[in-house]
């Protein structure tokens, strides 16, 4: 990368990451700051670093793979876990450089959706349910994805509504987008 390209990459106003098979190859200063990690310590690390459990890391892997194979790109909204354990709600975008094997080499971007903290602490189960709610899935669909009963998902949804003091899932998602 020439010097001007390196400056543009590092100074981009959104977090940028280059990965190979979910291992970080390069990050810009914005992503390092957003994640709370030093850039040099991230290179060579698995993206597992940003997930609480191996199961969560494995589950997220398949989200968007069909779109990446078909279109070469995918985007959604998700929480990024920082070094201190706090989270920031981000607009996530991925572009694969290898559509036949989408995870082999990718460029990822993370743009915080607001400047505020992500709100109350969430359990891994709450994060899982919230991730699928943000993708427009029903409790029944979420239950199938997570291998849970629909009643369990409904209980988690109710707990999320109480934590964020909102009457329904639409307001929950609106509140989260404002919180960042």
From TrEMBL:
UniProt keyword Coiled coil present: no
Entry keywords, A to Z: DNA-binding, Transcription, Transcription regulation
Entry annotated with the keyword DNA-binding: yes
UniProt cross-references to SUPFAM superfamilies, sorted A to Z: C-terminal effector domain of the bipartite response regulators, PYP-like sensor domain (PAS domain)
Pfam families, A to Z: GerE, PAS
UniProt xrefs under InterPro entries: PAS, PAS-like_dom_sf, PAS_fold, Sig_transdc_resp-reg_C-effctor, Tscrpt_reg_LuxR_C, WH-like_DNA-bd_sf
Cross-referenced SMART domains: HTH_LUXR
Signal peptide: none
Descriptive protein name: LuxR C-terminal-related transcriptional regulator
Ranges where the HTH luxR-type domain occurs: 115-180
């Amino acid at each position: 990368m020439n010097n001007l390209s390196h400056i543009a990459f590092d100074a981009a106003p959104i977090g940028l990451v280059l990965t190979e098979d979910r291992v970080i190859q390069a990050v810009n200063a914005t992503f390092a700051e957003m994640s709370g990690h030093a850039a040099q310590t991230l290179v060579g690390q698995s993206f597992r670093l940003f997930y609480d459990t191996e199961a969560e890391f494995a589950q997220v892997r398949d989200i968007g793979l069909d779109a990446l194979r078909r279109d070469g790109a995918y985007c959604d909204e998700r929480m990024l876990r920082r070094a201190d354990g706090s989270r920031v709600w981000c607009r996530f975008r991925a572009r694969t450089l290898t559509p036949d094997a989408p995870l082999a080499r990718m460029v990822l971007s993370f743009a915080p959706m607001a400047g505020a903290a992500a709100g109350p602490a969430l359990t891994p189960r709450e994060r899982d349910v919230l991730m699928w709610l943000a993708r427009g899935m029903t409790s029944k669909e979420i239950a199938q994805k997570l291998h849970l009963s629909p009643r369990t998902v409904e209980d988690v949804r109710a707990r999320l509504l109480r934590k964020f003091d909102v009457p329904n899932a639409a307001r929950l998602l609106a509140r989260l987008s404002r919180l960042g």
